[in-house]
Design brief:
This protein is mainly beta. Helix content is 6%, strand content 37%. The strands form 3 sheets. It has a 6-stranded mixed β-sheet with strand order 11-10-9-8-13-12, with no helix packed on it. It has a 5-stranded antiparallel β-sheet with strand order 5-6-2-1-7. A hairpin with a 4-residue loop joins strand 5 and strand 6. The two termini are 36 Å apart.
Length: 179
């Protein structure tokens, strides 16, 4: 499991007094303010959210120590992380943080290896699981739905994927099946 979890991204400066646009990646977007200091990816900088208010599709945040537009602009596109232990525990079965999926083996229902989960994306139309194929080549992107990913076993280190028909898994190629 990941030691640190990405919970937000700083966007463009907002105004002239050092506020920034902030996109939260948490289930409850406003909860990002309650996780304590947020860190950059390399851990070199820490930010405390002093105030947070909702805007159209993001938040406007005042970060401690960011007092000018120039300082705010220098932070644009900075991802913010928290240590895993600061996140609330998960008490529901079959519930997990997406970060827990990274590194899991992706298998077909027959047990054929597809590859390794490298990311979970959301480009606006739903979640997508990115899998680095075991045989190499371009990443496999599959919808993260119950039909396409019917089983997630974080403790067992695997997910089961029902690939779309147009995707040929390596075992099918070796058995001489047509794509």
């Amino acid at each position: 499991m990941a030691a640190r979890i990405r919970v937000a991204r700083i966007g463009a400066a907002h105004g002239v007094r050092g506020e920034v646009r902030l996109w939260s990646f948490t289930q409850d977007p406003a909860a990002v303010a309650g996780y304590g200091p947020l860190e950059t990816g390399d851990g070199a900088r820490r930010f405390e959210i002093e105030s947070l208010r909702a805007a159209k599709d993001h938040f406007v945040a005042r970060l401690a120590g960011v007092d000018s537009r120039d300082a705010a602009e220098s932070l644009c596109n900075t991802d913010l992380y928290v240590p895993r232990e600061r996140l609330p525990p998960i008490d529901e079965p079959d519930t997990y943080y997406y970060a827990d999926l990274i590194g899991l083996n992706a298998l077909t229902a027959n047990g054929d290896e597809l590859g390794t989960v490298t990311a979970v994306h959301n480009f606006g139309a739903g979640d997508i699981v990115e899998i680095a194929p075991a045989a190499g080549g371009a990443p496999l992107m599959v919808s993260f739905t119950e039909a396409t990913v019917p089983e997630v076993d974080v403790e067992g280190g695997r997910i089961v994927v029902v690939p779309p028909e147009e995707i040929v898994v390596p075992a099918e190629r070796s058995e001489g099946r047509d794509p």
